[in-house]
Request: fold
Amino acid sequence: MLKKWLLGSLLLLSGLISTGMAHARELVIAFDHTLQASTSLDAMARSQMLVRNLATAGVPQAMFLIKTKGADQKDKARLALYSDKGHLLVNAGHGHSLVTKSDLYVYEIGIMKANRILQAYSGYKKHVHFSYLHEFGDANIQRELADFLQERGYRPAFTGVNAMRGVDQYLDQLYQKKIRSNRAVNMASLEGAYIDLITQSLVQEDAKAFNVLGYSPRQVLVLQENDLAAYFIVALVDRLVAQGWTIIAAERAMNDPIANPIAANRWGANGYLNSITRLPDERVAYARVLGERKTAVDNFLQNRIPGFIE
Reply:
């Protein structure tokens, strides 16, 4: 059960702190599912709040994974906002459908389309985070795509494998449903649940890596760019810092030859931790695929925020 898992993670954290393992753990904050449309917050207002609260939280530079398909002038203004505030824009391809295709040319075109749009922003440094490079696809296409990227001067950007990745999008969907129905939401309880689900999974991943390596490698925590992230990022970062994490600029991790996957596994975007720990690779959970985690998360939310799920 998720409750037992959370308790186990807390015990792991206590052990890490008591033995000094929590010292100098470094973390990058990243955002996926970016450029979402307006919901209870206007899209631009959400981006402005998120940027303002990242600064308040002391995040020196976050990473935004950008899929450019459908980006209108308002979206481009949001990209300019992130870029002008010093955050790192990462090419995540042009469209979501790319991860389902088995055509190298289609992938290359998608990356180049996104590159043409993103190159107008100073926050874009030709970093690429592309799903097909780490999912269980055609190994030949993955190898040729890595060659294509390397030959054209693109740079790899990695993220972490976190068991709760995408769950924050599910929480936001439930929240938006409440707001549309004009129903009250206990925001303090929702904030606590949001933070616990994200941080305890990160604790578990860090403990697993430490047990294998003897040190805590730099991690990248992926959040979804939504209303709850804009509201709760300050409290989330405060909790992470209290747990011993130092939030660092995204480029410090992306340009580190030890942490960067190009040193161990060329372009494996999410598998870099598996490369250096030699643990089995695993498929990454996305916001669109809650899967078997839904029941555990629902039970957790029912205990923490009665009535939130109806």
In short: The longest strand covers residues 25-32. The first helix runs from residue 2 to 18. Strands lie at 25-32, 63-66, 88-91, 124-128, 155-156, 219-224, 245-247. Residues 1-23 have pLDDT under 50 and may be disordered.
